[in-house]
Design goal:
This protein is of the alpha+beta class and 122 residues long. 29% of the residues lie in helices and 40% in strands. It is globular, with a radius of gyration of 16 Å.
């Protein structure tokens, strides 16, 4: 029985990670909280970023921003300077970049109009 569990875990884990399934499942539980914030998003004139400091138990959203190119972004994690890398979730993001930077910009579709994003300010 233990060998079967190990084999299933060895095969299933890479598959789940490659399809971003754990992130999708977790985000599905917090999606209503993110959607409730959309009505109060910063105006989309240029690139607007504002402090949010929202505690959603599993996620701490320190800043959020809107981009005139499209999208509302919620930053949940950031790396250290000088190449500050930001990570989080985006609603209807654009393909060119984020208010947190355009370098190394990546999007992963989660569900509907929601994506996870990563971007660098350099």
């Amino acid at each position: 029985m233990t060998a079967l569990v190990v084999i299933v875990a060895t095969i299933l884990t890479p598959l789940l990670l490659a399809t971003h399934s754990p992130r999708r499942v977790v985000f599905a539980n917090y999606r209503p909280q993110f959607e409730a914030l959309l009505a109060d998003a910063p105006p989309a004139s240029g690139q607007a970023v504002a402090n949010l400091n929202a505690d959603m138990s599993l996620f701490w959203v320190d800043q959020w921003g809107t981009d005139a190119r499209g999208g509302t972004y919620f930053r949940t994690l950031t790396g250290a300077a000088p190449d500050r890398r930001s990570f989080g979730f985006a609603h209807r993001p654009n393909a060119e970049g984020s208010p947190f930077g355009d370098a190394g910009y990546e999007l992963q579709h989660l569900t509907g109009d929601w994506y996870s994003f990563a971007a660098s300010d350099r």
